[in-house]
Design brief:
Helix 18 links the parallel strand 20 and strand 21. Helix 1 runs parallel beside helix 13. With 558 residues, the chain is an alpha/beta fold. It starts with 8 loop residues before the first strand and ends with a helix. The chain is 37% helix and 20% strand. The longest helix has 22 residues.
Length: 558
């Protein structure tokens, strides 16, 4: 049986989410939910930067849930919802349940759903094959109700809720004179319809007598049994069958495994449990939730063909930018505006990629194409994403479509694009009190060309003085980050929106020379009186995607 709760489809941006990544995820999840009614959840694969925090607060939208990896977890796949049994049920009933449900393991579950143990088909068969002494039934504290059920018997004298917990089990096949030699106090005696045998067993202080073949029990015997505290049960079975079946009345609690149970959490990753399962002889393993309550059973068969989490990628299509574990996820769609470095998918997917300045522009088009009205909040998020990605239409990645859509959205959202952009960029470039690490990874992406690997971080600001102060700090931290990532070159863009230029930090062997060659810069035209080593001034360069990254890649290929 499948999990009762159907998993939501996660809509995710890249690992270092910017405003487009977050806002597009929120708005696309909303569109998909409106269109087909399935459960979609916008998520984020990293920390939200100050600019995006400003946007979400301005439009009163909650931050999406953080999802740091999408590896397949137990909760993502189908597990067997085998119902838990009480520790007191008989071996007979446990066996019947196994046959009915075609399982070989039953979980023993207490009130509140807490797992107490497991009973397997092997445990039951072992209970028959092992040679137990005749007191095994009392050692197992067998309830009289279990004995009645197993023998299809009737309680003549006694309480079915009481336990047979002292004495041994024996068959009264001899005459009463001999019976006196081996019947002891508290014993359970299986016998026939002979009055003398019944009387003898009671007088010898037996704890229980079982009268076979449906024989009647006289009033005298009943009265005497009542006085002596002897339980009397009748069964339609003969003596041999009764003796053979009575062990099946023992509770599973006596035979179940309670120690060193191999159980998994529904949060566990399949990669981690697969090896553990392979090393154990068990076929089924219990699944518990975070509170330790029993959920179901899992076997190796459940792992076959497990598809994993269903996700939609927005604002990226490269594996090295995607959330960790994306290779095991079931990617349903990709909506993006970047170059194609597509992640591998399990099956054909809906892939929409357009040469626009922002993913949010594409998503706005999809709202319109499907005749879905864009509300004020959605318009505000989508507009913010476009303003952010195009640097208020100054970026070379910006198209006329981006600008037209953004201004339309600004009108719906009730904002002045230019005034709102200044506030948004100011919030994003407020770097006071932030660590070098926070600033560096605020907007960072990793790239590869052949065997060369490099990273590019970027901050944008309206404040020239603020950017000037950061130059030396980012030079030092970029080298540290390069060593941590074990990559060839690291670049960091200090982009001034007002002057539409970038001071580029370059670290790694040949990094500065590579950029100088790619952009044909020289010491004379760098625009500063004192040039720091590892810093290149790039007038007119504001876009990582369309201006810097392609030039570096082209230079590396040459």
């Amino acid at each position: 049986m499948p999990n009762q709760e159907k998993q939501k489809i996660l809509v995710l941006g890249h690992r270092n989410p910017d405003t487009d990544s977050i806002c597009s995820a929120i708005c696309y999840a909303n569109l998909k939910q409106l269109l087909n009614g399935e459960e979609y959840e916008p998520c984020r694969a990293g920390n939200i930067n100050p600019e995006t925090q400003f946007v979400l607060k301005h439009f009163k939208v909650d931050s999406p849930r953080l999802v740091e990896n999408v590896k397949t977890q137990v909760k993502d796949i189908e597990i067997r919802k085998t119902k838990g049994v009480d520790r007191g049920i008989s071996l007979k009933n446990a066996w019947s349940l196994m046959q009915e449900n075609n399982v070989v393991t039953l979980p023993v579950v207490a009130d509140g759903g807490i797992l107490e143990g497991v009973i397997t088909i092997g445990d039951i068969t072992k209970s028959y094959m092992d040679l137990y002494d005749s007191s095994i039934i009392s050692k197992a504290r067998t309830k009289y109700a279990n004995i009645l059920d197993t023998l299809e018997g009737s309680m003549v004298v006694g309480d079915s809720e009481c336990y047979f917990d002292r004495g041994k089990v024996l068959i009264a096949a001899a005459n009463p004179d001999l019976m006196e030699n081996y019947i002891e106090k508290h014993d359970l005696v299986i016998l026939g319809n002979r009055y003398e045998s019944q009387l003898c067993a009671i007088e010898m202080e037996a704890g229980c007598i079982i009268v076979c073949e449906g024989a009647g029990v006289s009033l005298t015997i009943r009265k005497l049994a009542q006085e002596r505290g002897c339980t009397v049960i009748t069964t339609p079975y003969d003596t041999y069958t009764t003796a053979r079946l009575i062990n099946q009345s023992m509770p599973v609690s006596y035979f179940m495994t309670t120690d060193h149970i191999v159980a998994f959490s529904d949060e566990d990753y399949l990669d981690e449990i697969r090896e553990i399962m392979a090393s154990k002889r068990h076929r089924d393993f219990p699944i518990l939730n975070s509170d330790g309550k029993y959920l179901g059973m899992i076997s190796r068969r459940n792992l076959l063909g497990a598809k994993g989490k269903q996700i939609i990628l927005v604002d990226h299509n490269e594996k090295n930018q995607a959330v960790e574990g994306v290779e095991s996820a079931d990617i349903r769609e990709i909506i993006d505006h970047h170059r194609l470095r597509t992640v591998e998918t399990m099956s054909p997917v809906f892939f929409r990629n357009q040469p626009l300045g922002c993913t949010a522009t594409i998503i706005c088009q999809m709202y319109q194409e499907n005749g879905v009205k864009i509300d004020k909040k959605t318009a505000g998020l989508l507009c913010s994403a476009i303003i952010s990605d195009t640097l208020l239409f100054r970026s070379p990645t910006c198209t006329s479509m981006d600008k037209t859509v953004a201004l339309m959205l600004a009108d719906i959202a009730g904002i002045n694009a230019e005034e709102y952009a200044k506030k948004m960029f100011a919030a994003g470039s407020n770097l006071k009190g932030k660590s070098d690490e926070d600033i560096f990874y605020q907007d960072f992406k990793r790239f590869s060309v052949g065997k060369s690997v490099f990273g590019i971080g970027q901050i944008t600001s309206l404040d020239s003085e603020e950017l000037e102060v950061l130059k030396e700090r980012m030079l030092l931290y970029s080298e540290k980050a390069r060593e941590q990532h074990h990559i060839d070159m690291m670049f960091f863009m200090l982009t001034n929106i007002l002057t539409e230029s970038t001071d580029l930090v370059c670290v790694g062997q040949g990094a500065e020379q590579l950029v100088a060659s790619a952009f044909h810069t020289s010491d004379e035209d760098d625009g500063s009186e004192e040039k720091l080593d590892g810093l290149v001034h790039l007038p007119g360069v504001v876009s990582r995607k369309k201006q810097l990254a392609p030039q570096i890649m082209m230079a590396l290929q040459q």
